[in-house]
Design goal:
Length: 138
């Protein structure tokens, strides 16, 4: 487990039930599941520095592992430094974004430092996502 570079980016898959009527992810897309110690994301630069090329690889990796991407789902692209600095400034929490590779997903990473009860953290992370930061899941 090693920290991701501050200048790098991660993508969070937002399932359709977490996307609002305008096509934007809601805060619950960034809420941790109970009994998990991190928010699962994918490190884009693991595959390529170009976001759209990297997302193509993330899609293929997730599909190959049996993860079902939905047509109305979205990938939210987030900067590592932005996640950490925004949450630190607004909530005083020190988050970590670490590479946590899995056998079937070498780009897997996690946002650590909060729990499933910290909905304010999820809302702060969501606030970082603009229209240009979304990619179709399928």
């Amino acid at each position: 487990m090693r920290p991701l570079p501050e200048a790098d980016h991660v993508a969070r898959y937002c399932k359709p039930s977490t996307i609002d009527e305008r096509g934007q992810p809601m805060a619950n897309a960034f809420a941790m599941r109970a009994r998990e110690d991190h928010l699962s994301v994918n490190w884009l630069e693991h595959f390529d520095p170009q976001p759209d090329v990297a997302i193509h690889h993330v899609r293929n990796t997730l599909r190959a592992s049996g993860f079902q991407l939905r047509p109305n789902g979205r990938f939210a692209l987030l900067g590592v430094a932005a996640i950490k600095s925004t949450v630190k400034r607004s909530l005083g929490l020190r988050l970590h974004v670490n590479h946590l590779p899995l056998e079937h997903d070498p780009s897997h990473a996690g946002v650590l430092g909060y729990s499933d009860a910290d909905l304010m953290v999820a809302a702060e992370i969501r606030s970082l996502v603009g229209p240009g930061d979304l990619r179709r899941a399928v």
